[in-house]
């Protein structure tokens, strides 16, 4: 294992003297909202929060699982859900002056639906308070419960994100025993399957590098995600949060991340964010996601208008006698 981080790997200080960081931290604290940025010790917290972006973590700060890479607290019996959390979350994000929000959560295997209905209620309230808000949900696997995935996919969210985390061979070594490679792929497939008619739900996943995987295994995982019709992929360097967690096997060079980004784009992913500091809910990717969603919506509207115009034009060319026959 590498003894220390290479010279080119630099994590900026969180606050950076920017008052926006302090404002967002205070706002979240007042409403008793947790963020994965803090709980998971994300290295990009300064950049994202100073830019007005935070990833809100629903359903408390205690997870029922114990993945060996994650710094979030774990307990088989976490506190009950806060029924006011969906309202507080919607209230907070509608006032932040942002157009894109990322919601994530701990795993709540203690709940019948894994918390899917709580998530869906939050999405619905955000959309009610600010219909133009784009909502990305980074969720667990709900133990493969198709009904839970359906509830969430139909909630009105724009991006359904679920992280496969690592390659097939390392799943049992890195993730909790209740997680599984094929189970994660099926959750991503199910989200697309359950998207509401007439809408477009984007799916997204992430892979951590530096845990001992080979290049061939990473490429295989990327291909499996693409075969599951995943639209967006992020790849980032694994960082050890504490001495109790898995050690870093390798610090992957920026050149390798660039190569994987180009390969992912060639595979057909709509967007690939790849770099040592990239995380699944990374601010830099939100700008592209917003632009992509807006562009696709505009194309769909144009196609609908064109189809309507073509139908009107066709009807106008029908002879009067034929028109009478049509209407009987």
Structural write-up:
- The protein has 328 residues and is an alpha/beta fold.
- The protein contains twelve helices and ten strands.
- It has an eight-stranded mixed sheet, sandwiched between helices. A two-stranded parallel ribbon has the order 3-4.
- Helix 4 packs parallel to helix 5 and helix 6 crosses helix 8 (181-193).
- It starts with 18 loop residues before the first helix and ends with a helix.
Gist?
By secondary structure, the protein is an alpha/beta fold. It has twelve helices and ten strands. It is globular, with a radius of gyration of 22 Å.
Helix-strand blueprint:
Blueprint: H1 19-30, E1 34-35, H2 36-39, H3 45-50, E2 55-58, E3 62-63, E4 73-74, H4 85-95, E5 100-105, H5 116-129, E6 134-138, H6 146-153, E7 159-161, H7 171-174, H8 181-193, E8 202-209, H9 215-227, E9 232-237, H10 254-267, E10 271-274, H11 283-316, H12 320-327
Parallel strand pairs: 2-5, 3-4, 5-6, 6-7, 7-8, 8-9, 9-10
Antiparallel strand pairs: 1-2
Strand count, sense and barrel status of the largest sheet are: 8 strands, mixed
Give the rounded overall mean pLDDT. 81
Low-confidence stretches: 35-52, 314-328
Written as H for each helix and E for each strand, in order along the chain, the element string is HEHHEEEHEHEHEHHEHEHEHH
Secondary-structure-based class equals alpha/beta
Coarse morphology:
globular
Number of helices: 12
Helix proportion of residues, in percent?
A: 40-55%
Distance between the termini: 80 Å
- The tally of beta strands, per DSSP, is 10
Order of strands, main sheet, comes to: 1-2-5-6-7-8-9-10
Radius of gyration, in Å, reads 22 Å
Share of residues in strands = 5-15%
